[in-house]
Write a structure and sequence with these properties.
Blueprint: H1 16-24, H2 33-46, H3 51-56, H4 58-64, H5 70-74, H6 78-85, H7 94-114, H8 117-122, E1 130-131, H9 143-155, H10 162-171, E2 175-176, H11 183-191
Parallel strand pairs: 1-2
Helix pairs in contact: 2-7, 2-10, 9-10
Amino acid sequence: MKVKTKKRCQWPGEDSLMVQYHDEEWGNPCRDDKKLFEYLILDTFQAGLSWRTILHKRENFRKAFDNFDAMRISKYNKKDVKRLMNDAGIIRNKLKILSAIINAQKFLEMQKEFGSFNKYIWQFTNHKTINNKVLKNIGSTSKESNAMSKNMKEKGFKFVGSTICYAFMQGAGIINDHTIKCFRHKEVKCAT
């Protein structure tokens, strides 16, 4: 008897953690500030690296960065930076570590200014998920990620180029880039 396999996007490959992330999390419209902050931190560290690398270190990041508690991270000092630079379980890049601290501070500022980070970050798509339908529409940037990047830089966020913003938008379900043949495309589309 032939086992029917689900059709999914190609990028997870055969990596079980990537497949699980694709099937259960990637592209789900997220409006939870704590989870959005986690995505922001992880995408900051992704700059120049593969998502697979970050995903496989995610639990190490969670431990090293106080369960992605923005208030605690915003108060990190030189001792914390040194601790993180010595943590082999994460990406030990001083500029990215310092940017995580700055981004935590800016995240809290956006919560105060907009009432939630969710309200701030979803404004770039008029608070709706963009559902891409064909592969040619899927890129590494968009006019929305360009606008998000520009605004975030103006507000003082670090490591928020358009490509990083686009990856963030994909992960947070602000953009649905599951291919049309992927079983998740319709599920995510229905969730918006």
